[in-house]
Design a protein that fits this description.
By secondary structure, the chain is of the alpha/beta class. The protein is 42% helix and 13% strand.
């Protein structure tokens, strides 16, 4: 099999000529073309945390994305999701929201399933090596992640339209190009462009090297594969921006350096904040506190409850991060909350918006029905039921004549006839 072709197909596609906003000293903070820029808007919401490289993000990066700019055109942005489990979790949602915001602004986005990189394991933010997964397990996980990502994109498209022309949402799997590579050919073509000193200097590598377990060669090589992913997508799809969690900055930098060294072109990295528990632990599978997006692992009701339980000091931030609600509407919701805190209006709106995105309208409806039970709004035969997982007991919930009297809320009564007992 031939070695990877290391050449740039897109040199010169993007002009560096200063645009109308080139004189703005704070490109990420100022409005462009009479309206707040996409990047500045998401930074204000707290969704976009860091931009790399700093020297190019004051003017060049905003001009790349802001609609109405002279010479602007749809860009391509990607974010990777390793197939280490068969479902995404809440910790992945912010990166997905970032992709969706770019898509809503008319740009094309790629969700990259790590069907190959999952075999190595990303050391970023980890204190010990990830448990090794066999090839068949990773393939099954990758297939499940693809279905999950496509379902989320479909819910977004169907339920959150805003009248604008959106960009495309594409799901790819990096095993599609790695399974064609021969190891020696790959190392000869790609490995020669990385310097050991630079790779060793990454914070994620330094942390692991100083740990009692150390670091395996497989983990150490992970950043090279992620860098090549960025290069491959740049070459084939014109992708200039990689989006990832703040713990991914080192891997993003490796991709930038690789592409810049080979092509002389600039690419960019944007990070989103990590979502943590009340104790400060990162939410995820490894930490054992994952809230899954697959309904077979976390029900719509449980997902709804996770967000409806958020404290007052975090709910406004979460409304900005996890929803598409305009800032003025969020401000209005929070003002009403000050007057009627007992109603937990912001928490319920947050939970509803996220559950609808993840599980669709049907999932949200089912979650609200479960919520009515937990809040004491349902009784059977004049007995209040507060556990949605309760088993119906013959003689208590079902009378000897096979009937049940169901009361929902204050005015809705139903007589149920059970045909099989």
């Amino acid at each position: 099999m031939a070695a990877p072709t290391l050449r740039c197909l897109f040199r010169g596609r993007w002009s560096r000529t200063p645009g109308p906003s080139a004189n703005l000293p704070l490109g990420l903070r100022k409005a462009h073309s009479g309206a707040q820029g996409l990047l500045a808007a998401q930074k204000a919401r707290g969704l976009f945390k860091e931009f790399f490289p700093e020297r190019g993000t004051k003017v060049e990066l905003p001009e790349l994305f802001d609609r109405g700019m002279a010479g602007s055109f749809p860009q391509t942005i990607y974010c990777g999701f390793d197939a280490t489990a068969d479902s995404l979790h809440v910790g992945h949602l912010l990166a997905l929201l970032g992709l969706f915001h770019f898509q809503r602004a008319g740009h094309n986005v790629i969700a990259l399933v790590g069907g190959a990189t999952a075999r190595l394991g990303d050391p970023s933010g980890r204190t010990k090596e990830r448990e090794a997964l066999d090839a068949e397990r990773v393939r099954a996980n990758a297939s499940a992640l693809r279905r999950g990502l496509e379902a989320l994109a479909a819910n977004h498209q169907q339920l959150f339209t805003d009248g604008r022309t959106w960009g495309s949402f594409t799901v790819l799997d990096n095993s599609a190009w790695y399974q064609k590579q021969h190891l020696v050919d790959y190392l000869a073509a790609v490995g020669a462009h990385f310097r050991m000193g630079t790779l060793l200097s990454r914070q994620s590598v330094q942390t692991r090297l100083k740990s009692p377990e150390g670091m395996s060669l497989a983990e150490f090589f992970y950043q090279v594969l992620q860098a090549y992913d960025f290069y491959y997508l740049f070459q084939r799809y014109g992708c200039r921006v990689q989006l990832g969690g703040s713990d991914q900055l080192g891997n993003i930098v490796s991709g930038y350096e690789f592409i810049n060294k080979l092509t002389g072109e600039d690419v960019f990295g944007i990070t989103v904040p990590l979502i943590t528990s009340t104790t400060g632990a990162k939410l995820g599978k490894s930490a054992g506190n994952a809230v899954w997006l697959n309904r077979d692992k976390t029900s719509p009701f449980e997902l709804y409850q996770f967000f409806v339980r958020q404290q007052d000091d975090s709910v406004e931030r979460y409304l900005k991060l996890f929803t598409f609600l305009p800032i003025p509407e969020i401000d209005s919701i929070m003002q009403l909350h000050i007057k009627e805190p007992e109603k937990r209006g912001p928490q319920k709106r947050l939970a509803a918006e996220v559950t609808k995105l993840v599980h669709g309208r049907e999932g949200l409806d089912s979650a609200k029905r479960y919520r009515m039970i937990t809040e004491g709004g349902v009784s059977i035969n004049h007995r209040q039921v507060t556990n949605p997982e309760s088993v119906l007991v013959v003689g208590q919930h079902i009378l000897k004549n096979g009937l049940s009297l169901l009361k929902i809320g204050k005015k809705n009564f139903y007589v149920i006839k059970w045909l099989q007992l």
